[in-house]
Amino acid sequence: MDKYSSGRMKLFSSTAGFFTSAGNQFAGRNIARLFKKKAHGGVSFQFRILFAFTLLIVIVMGTLGAVTYWGGKQWLERYTDDRLLVSARNLSEKVDIFTTTVDKRELTRKAGYLLNAEANSFSSQGMQAQLQILDPQGKILLSSGQQDKGGFKLPGRLVATMLTRRSGLETVQMAGKQWRVAYQHIPGNNWTYVVGLAEKDYLQPISELRNLIVVVALASILATLIICAVGANKFAGPLNHLTGVMDRASKGDFTVRAGKLNAGREFSILGDRLNAMLYELGRLFGQFRDTAGELHETSRRMNRVADNQVKFALETEGGVEEMAATVENVTGQVMQAKQSSEEMMRLAGDGMLSLKTVVGKIGENRELISSTASAMHDLELQIQEIGKIVDIINNISRQTHLLSLNASIEAARAGMQGRGFAVVAEEVRRLAEETNQATAEVARIIDTIQEGSRLVTERVEEGLKVADQGVETVNLAEESLRQIDHAVAGTGEKIAAIASAAQEIILGTREAVQTVRLIAGTATNAETQVSARDIAAMAARLAAMADRMQQDLGRFNVDKQEGPEEEKINAELMPA
């Protein structure tokens, strides 16, 4: 391998190194910027990949060509300068040696031989050199060819410079060509050796290399376009498929699934994860829909329970009002008994005008007390019935409280969508607690009434005993009229006590009626107008909310059955 070929190898090595360290980094940065920009709008992904790789190849090949051409040209220029200077120095030294050893004729012959040999040396390297020996006046003494061959005719200014400087290297324009000329003084005969090379000749390899780079670059761009088009289509196909799946899912269809993607492990994993996500979303919305249905059914049940509570309260109200009327009737009878007792006392004060009349009055008194005892017994039974009804209302209140707690739990499960329902459930719970407190108050009042009734009954029973004693006293009237007088007085006092107790029973009964009206929602006081009717209205609003929730969830399709492949995917992706 000659020096010129070795230089070419060095040129290619240095060019490749420069490209690796600079050109590739520049291309990479620009492609990264290209993909970071958001100005592509509707440009397809395939085109972006194709454009990016084409731009990369253009930048790489352009950088490679520019660096190679510039570096090769610089190197060839330096190499040519060195070659010309070496030729000028060596040949001038050889000719100078001959001037001292041979005569002029032989010198001319040997100098011509050296010129031809040097010209052949340049020709062997692909360069057509022009070699001349000038005499002291600047005229051509010897030449490797014709004087004007190739347009190599030295201008006078350059010849004068050569004769003055004796050695050097010049660039000159001759016959429309750029020439590189080296010259060296030959001391023995005062000659000047001149060698010149046309720039077109010694840069011919660079021109050929440039053309080769252009051809290779075009071929590379074409190959890149083909490869990138095929690769981008294969890469973008699965992406378009996944995009279509996600588009259908965004419209509420969670039954859609991504098919098998034979575009690499990453796309397969992406498809599996997307299927798992769609499965989980479908399952979640299915649970929401089921929860909405359960909420709707629960609200309907609450509405029915509230209606039944209103119905029971209204029935209780009627019973309590009847009880109040009965108590007032009993009170009237007690007042009549009091008046009769007073009359008996008056008659006893006047004396025992007629034993028969006294016996009759005592009999009437006993019957009156007996009816009073019977009425009190009936009153006690009615009060017990009221207690049972209050127990029923209390049980309904507890059930309502439990339903409100269950509703609060379901609202908490629903998250943000159950907030409104949670407020309604809390209001229902509060109303249930107020109802429970009201029924407890009614139970307390009933206990008080029962206690008073028991006392009245005891008094009536005592009155019966006194009446019996009066009968016995009448039978023994002859023995002790004074005992009859005392017995009648005691009876009057007891009847007065019965009347007082009856008044208390009336007051308690009126309070019970007001409490039952409050529960039934028929109370006239606006400040206490929170009742079972309100609970029913709230349950109706809750049912309407559940209907709207079902309508909103109805647009999501989550009824698809899983196939074996989906079960396998979910088994791999979902924890046990």
What would a concise description of this structure say?
Residues 233-286 form the HAMP domain. The chain is built from 12 helices and 5 strands. It is α+β, with helices and mostly antiparallel strands and 576 residues long.
Descriptive keywords:
rod-shaped, disordered N terminus, alpha+beta, single chain, disordered C terminus, 2 domains, 576 residues, 5-stranded antiparallel sheet, Beta-Lactamase
Write the layout of secondary structure elements.
Elements: H1 3-36, H2 45-99, H3 104-124, E1 129-134, E2 140-143, H4 156-165, E3 167-174, E4 177-186, E5 191-198, H5 199-202, H6 204-250, H7 265-350, H8 355-414, H9 419-475, H10 481-520, H11 532-553, H12 564-573
Helix pairs in contact: 1-2, 2-3, 2-6, 6-7, 7-8, 7-10, 7-11, 7-12, 8-9, 9-10, 9-11
Protein name: Chemotaxis protein
Pfam families: 2CSK_N, MCPsignal
Family: Belongs to the methyl-accepting chemotaxis (MCP) protein family.
Give a description of the structure.
- The protein contains twelve helices and five strands.
- A hairpin with a 4-residue loop joins strand 4 (about 175-185) and strand 5.
- The chain has two domains: about 5-225, Beta-Lactamase (2-Layer Sandwich), CATH 3.30.450; about 285-560.
- The protein has a five-stranded antiparallel β-sheet, with helices on both faces.
- With about 575 residues, the protein is of the alpha+beta class.
- It has helices spanning about 5-35, 45-100, 105-125, 155-165, 200, 205-250, 265-350, 355-415, 420-475, 480-520, 530-555, 565-575; strands at about 130-135, 140-145, 165-175, 175-185, 190-200.
- About 75% of the residues lie in helices and about 5% in strands.
